[in-house]
Write a structure and sequence with these properties.
The complex is a heterotrimer.
Chain A lengths: L9 H25 L5 H26 L3 H26 L15
Chain B lengths: L2 H6 L1 H31 L30 E2 L8 H4 L1 H13 L8 H7 L1 H25 L4 H11 L10 H4 L18 H14 L4 E6 L30 E7 L3 H5 L8 H20 L4 E4 L9 H7 L4 E2 L5 E2 L8 E7 L13 H8 L1 H5 L11 E3 L2 E3 L4 H10 L8 H5 L8 H12 L4 H13 L29 H4 L4
Antiparallel strand pairs in B: 1-9, 2-3, 3-7, 4-7, 5-6, 8-9
Chain C lengths: L1 H4 L4 H24 L5 H7 L5 E5 L2 E5 L5 E12 L2 E10 L4 E9 L3 H6 L2 H8 L12 H4 L5 H23 L14 H15 L5 H22 L6 H8 L10 H17 L3 H6 L1 H13 L7 H25 L10 H6 L4 H16 L3 H6 L1 H24 L1
Antiparallel strand pairs in C: 1-2, 2-3, 3-4, 4-5
Helix pairs in contact in C: 2-14, 2-18, 8-9, 8-11, 9-13, 13-16
The chains are: A mainly alpha, B alpha+beta, C alpha+beta.
């Protein structure tokens, strides 16, 4: 039980922050490789989706932790559904605007 | 960071991509663990343990308003405790029923005006209690541990006041000479000190208001030391302020209402806090008087708690606080020590209760109205059928009372990020959309048994509880019932 | 899909006939078995009851000395998932001494939210001609309106029956007005649009269909929550016809479904009105639905669907509980109500909608099974006619 308290600490959020940054770098590398432009609105879409997906996971965890399995199941399915559908839409939006000719030329922007 | 590096070095780019995916997975897993830890966090069991102010997790300042959130619509009057306090009335009813069944005033004219209440009071004595006794013999064993626990919780606590204000309230030293009040450095400092002390005595929340005399009983309860309870109660001049203190009931048993939770648990603590506060104020030389649960009051507590900025009244008639929801059992100290008062708050309970109605749907006795508000003594509020409510208490096995409306209220959730965010969202959203959405989610995510299932077997139910009891209240796991 | 293109074989028609015969047998068996035993209920109202004598819907109740001690009236009316029967006991002085629910075929979730027991308790003790039918209190419970209406209707008819037999008092039942509102207008409009747009082609037709479906999603889905469900169909097939005056919508939808299937071969309910179809299509647009399933798997899932529909109908007919048949997750989407299994089904179907074209319609929906049966029969009849002509 005491070990779980690490997840309520500031240190945990510090680690989460680092993971977030690495995730963003990974997405940027991926997009560059494919020559897909990443304007600001795409980062907003990505951020909103990450927050919502994170909320879904945390909701399920919290509901299990407080002993509400029905809430965990139904919440996971409902929010998960929104996250999956939203994720599919967001993904299609993220990979849009790709210029096939630009694939090799990755430049600073 | 040099972008051209990541552009030219494919190995490094692959590494970053893989690291990104791994981070997403680890971050997601971390959030799940965070959630699980938050769900089990002992700190979310907000209560008497988190004393000395640690329980004040809600930024009340944002939600302060000038007028309390109840609506005054006409000339007001004060309640007559002898007939309007259900416990007092039922007590008189039982006594007078036993001694022949001729009802004396004020019971007589009350029953003439409210024959349905006479019907319900009779039903309790003639049908419900005998049925409960029969069922208790057959099904009562299951609740042995919870009853033992409840008795233990109630075993400690000061005796209720049994002398009138002019005798009890004024501080005297050991020889009986009045104590002179100390010189205080200003109402703001005094309020700060009093609140800190209340917290220090174990209160979870504390608020201060000027006492609105409308909340004081017109005729007092019996056993509060008034010589003649049939004489009108004059509001003493030194009841200028009311300090509201209190604690929640233990969370896990509370969710296992109506059988496993107990009011004693919070009652006893609130009694102790209020009595200590009375002693502290008297030590400063100022008069003070406690009004404490179970039923030792000269006044109605929930409206005073609203005035003191602790919360708002819900459809079920119970005070809803942002920190504890409906799970708050208050006590009051009346005094005239000069203090800065708190302002009432509006966290959107009025709008929420208009749509939600979960308490009314859950209530096994149908005491909570589905309809709009009605006028009661010049104020608009939701009608509560206290006689039906008490009849269900009387029918119920396990611990005295029911408290299901407290357990099922969407506001009654432990203090973690999830539920407190929900409170903040409804409080901030003026459109009512979040009220509807959250009510819908509450109903589908947190279902409970059907109202009829809570009845005792001889009334067609199976002694259901809203949630399973915690392990330490499961009699069958510890005691050989044979 | 392949169901339409494959040549129609005798074998399939034979299968349909066998299935319908089995279902009819199940229903017949269910109906004979379902007659409730009223004796214990009458005894619970009249503890002194020793014998009864039936006079249509009214039972004369006698004690051991053969004195008439009262009457019990059996009243019935259509609830959401079937009929609602109520037994009202009235003693010789004309006082209501007890009310019992005889048959209760509502989905448990709907039933429990209704404050029916309270109402029944409240009218107990009133004189038969002073019973209140004002049910403001109980009808105000969300989602329970139809159920509580049904209870009150049943109480009203049984009291009227007893009054006629026992006290020779004629208590006319109020005639309910036709409830023809926005929902009904929208349903008619959706079918009208569907028929009219058969002449349109290309993007124009697509736009009209989108408009109709979104209207359907909002009105028949989120607002009125009144799509065709297997429960409603089963109730009607079992003979529990919902009151035409208050349930015009379901009759309009079914009539539209059947007529357009027979006339046009493709039913316009699914294409233009069904709110769940609209939800899947919207999700499909988001996801791009690019997955092509191998034909064998499509065939297998269609067969599985038919088997599930048959099983659901069989169980519902056998037990005479229409609510048993309703496996659709519509209520979860439109009002977050349903079993955990229905929540899971909704999740699977809508996630699948991202990649596959309307998976519910193809692999789960009972309406598709019914449509296919009608289409096949129609084509088979046409071929027979053609063969006879040549």
């Amino acid at each position: 039980m005491r070990a779980m308290q690490i997840f309520n600490s500031g240190f945990f959020w510090f680690i989460e922050g680092i993971l977030c940054v690495v995730m963003i770098l990974g997405l940027r590398a991926f997009m560059r490789e494919r020559g897909i432009p990443m304007p600001a609105w795409k980062w907003v879409v990505f951020g909103v989706w990450v927050l919502f997906a994170g909320f879904t996971i945390a909701f399920v965890g919290t509901s299990l932790g407080e002993g509400e399995p029905t809430a965990a199941t139904r919440g996971g399915l409902l929010f998960g559904l929104i996250a999956v559908i939203g994720g599919a839409g967001a993904w299609r939006a993220l990979v849009s605007g790709r210029d096939p000719g630009e694939r090799a030329q990755v430049t600073d922007s | 960071m040099s972008d051209s590096d990541s552009g030219t070095n494919p190995n490094r780019r692959d590494f970053i991509k893989i690291a990104g995916v791994a981070s997403a997975a680890a971050g997601g897993a971390g959030l799940g663990m965070f959630g699980y830890a938050a769900g089990q966090d002992p700190a979310s069991y907000l209560g008497w343990q988190n004393q000395e102010g640690a329980s004040l997790i809600f930024e009340r300042k944002h939600y302060e308003v000038d007028v309390p959130t109840y609506e005054k619509i006409g000339p007001t009057s004060r309640p007559d405790a002898r007939v309007e306090n259900i416990f007092d009335r039922r007590g008189s009813f039982m006594r007078q029923l036993r001694s022949g069944g001729e009802f004396e005033e004020p019971l007589k004219s009350y029953y003439e005006k409210h024959p349905e209440d006479l019907e319900l009071d009779r039903l309790s004595a003639e049908e419900i209690i005998p049925k409960r006794m029969a069922d208790e013999a057959e099904y009562g064993d299951r609740f042995f541990l919870s009853q033992a626990w409840s008795d233990a919780m109630g075993a400690v606590g000061p005796d209720p006041i049994d002398s009138p204000p002019e005798e009890n309230d004024f501080p005297r030293d050991r020889r009986g000479t009045p104590i002179e009040p100390v010189k205080l450095k200003g109402p703001e400092m005094t309020a700060r000190l009093i609140k800190k002390l209340a917290m220090q005595f174990g209160s979870t929340l504390v608020g201060i208001t000027e006492l609105n005399p409308d909340w004081v009983y017109a005729y007092p309860l019996r056993r509060r030391g008034f010589e003649n309870p049939d004489e009108p109660l004059e509001v003493p001049e030194h009841w200028k302020y009311a300090i509201v203190v209190g604690t929640p009931m233990s969370w896990d048993p509370m969710y296992a209402n109506p059988n496993y939770g107990t009011s004693n648990d919070a009652y006893s603590r609130s009694r102790i806090i209020a009595t200590r506060l009375e002693a502290f104020i008297k030590a400063l030389g100022y008069p003070a008087r406690t009004h404490i649960p179970g039923n030792s009051y000269d006044l109605m507590v929930p409206p005073i708690a609203i005035d003191a900025g602790l919360g708002q009244q819900g459809r079920h008639g119970v005070l809803i606080t942002p920190e504890l929801g409906s799970n708050f059992r208050p006590a009051v100290v009346t005094t005239n020590i000069p203090m800065k008062t708190d302002r009432p708050i509006d966290i959107g309970v009025e709008d929420f209760c208009k749509h939600c109605k979960i308490c009314a749907e859950v209530c096994p006795s149908g005491s909570i109205t589905m309809e709009g508000k009605v006028e009661v003594r010049g104020y608009r509020r939701y009608a509560i059928d206290t006689a039906k409510c008490l009849n269900f208490w009387m029918s119920n096995l396990g611990n005295m009372g029911c408290r299901l409306c407290v357990s099922a209220c969407p506001y009654t959730r432990k203090a973690n990020w999830l539920h407190k965010s929900a409170v903040r969202i409804t409080a901030a959203d003026p459109t009512g959309l979040s009220d509807r959405a959250l009510t819908g989610l509450q109903k589908s995510f947190y279902p409970g048994p059907d109202p009829e299932d809570y009845y005792i077997p001889s009334l067609g139910g199976d002694n259901a509880s809203y949630r399973e009891p915690p392990w330490w209240l499961r009699t069958e796991d510890f005691i050989d019932l044979g | 899909m392949n169901e339409r293109k494959s040549p129609i074989r005798e074998q399939r028609i034979v299968r349909y006939i066998v299935a319908v015969a089995i279902l009819a047998a199940a229903l017949t068996y269910g109906r004979t078995r379902a007659a409730p035993d009223l004796e214990p209920l009458i005894e619970s109202i009249f503890p002194a009851a020793a014998s009864t004598q039936q006079d249509q819907n009214v039972y004369h109740v006698y004690d051991t000395d053969d004195h008439l001690i009262g009457w019990a009236g059996l009243g019935q009316s259509g609830g959401y998932g079937g009929p609602m029967s109520v037994l009202v006991g009235i003693d010789a002085t004309g006082t209501v001494v007890g009310v019992r629910i005889v048959e209760q075929r509502e989905t448990p979730v709907f039933w429990s939210r209704a404050r029916v027991p309270d109402y029944l308790r409240a009218i107990t003790g009133s004189r038969y001609d002073e019973v209140g039918y004002d049910y403001q209190d109980i009808a105000a419970v969300t989602g329970a309106t139809l159920s509580t209406d049904a209870v009150i209707e049943s109480v009203r008819t049984s009291i009227a029956d007893v009054a006629g037999v026992a006290f020779d008092v004629h208590m006319p039942l109020p005639r309910k007005p036709f409830e023809f509102g926005l929902l009904e207008i929208v349903i008619l409009a959706l079918f009208a649009v569907g028929i009219a747009s058969r002449r349109l082609r290309g993007p124009k037709r697509s736009r009209v269909r989108w408009g109709a479906q979104i209207t359907g999603l909002v009105v028949l889905g989120f607002w009125k929550e009144s799509p065709i469900t297997l429960t409603k169909i089963t109730a009607i097939l079992s003979g529990y016809l919902p009151d035409v005056r208050t349930s015009i919508a379901i009759y309009l939808l079914l009539a539209g479904f059947l007529l357009t299937t027979i006339l046009y071969g493709r039913n316009l309910y699914c294409l233009y009105a069904c709110p769940f179809g609209a939800a899947q299509r919207i999700v499909g647009v988001i996801g791009g639905r690019r997955l092509k399933l191998p034909p064998w798997s499509v065939r297998a899932m269609e067969t599985a669907r038919n088997v599930v529909v048959f099983g659901a109908l069989f169980a519902a007919f056998l037990t005479l509980q229409p609510a048993l048949a309703g496996y659709e997750p519509f209520a979860v989407l439109f009002s977050l109500r349903g079993t955990n299994l229905q929540w899971l089904l909704l999740f699977i179907v809508l996630v699948a909608s991202l990649a596959i074209r309307t998976p519910w319609c193809a692999f789960f929906c009972p309406m598709r099974t019914i449509e296919v049966v009608i289409q096949d029969t129609k084509r088979w009849l046409r071929r027979k006619r053609r063969e006879a002509a040549t």
